[in-house]
Amino acid sequence: MQPDAKPQEITMGVVINFSVRTVAGFTYPGLEEFPVVIRDANEVLITFAGSNESGSSIVAGDINRTGRGR
């Protein structure tokens, strides 16, 4: 991460499981998969976060369910 970094759009496939409140699909070669949980969800936004046990890898963000940017 860079202090002055600007957000960049990316395209990827994720699986959102509302039953168990998880988001999966954040994989990278050499990185183990870890739980990413849904923190909040409404008609427009899904907010999620998770990290590996040591805290050295973190995934956090939100998904706009409308398909339009904020």
Structural class: mainly beta
Terminal-residue CA separation: 22 Å
Q: Residue share in helices?
A: under 10%
Could you give a short account of the major beta sheet?
3 strands, antiparallel
| Number of continuous helical runs | 0
Q: Using only CA atoms, what is the Rg? A: 13 Å
Report mean pLDDT, rounded to a whole number: 85
Strand order of the largest sheet: 3-4-5
**Strand proportion:** 35-45%
> Would you count the extended β strands for me?
5
Dominant shape? globular
The sequence of SSEs as H and E is EEEEE
Low-confidence stretches: none
Question: In words, what does this structure look like?
Answer:
- The chain is mostly beta strands.
- 0% of the residues lie in helices and 36% in strands.
- The protein is built from no helices and 5 strands.
- The strands form 2 sheets. The protein has a 3-stranded antiparallel beta sheet, with no helix packed on it. A two-stranded antiparallel ribbon has the order 1-2.
- The model has no long low-confidence stretch (mean pLDDT 85).
Task: Summarize this entry quickly.
The chain is mostly beta strands.
List the helices and strands and how they pair.
Blueprint: E1 15-17, E2 22-24, E3 37-41, E4 45-51, E5 58-64
Antiparallel strand pairs: 1-2, 3-4, 4-5
Keywords:
three-stranded antiparallel β-sheet
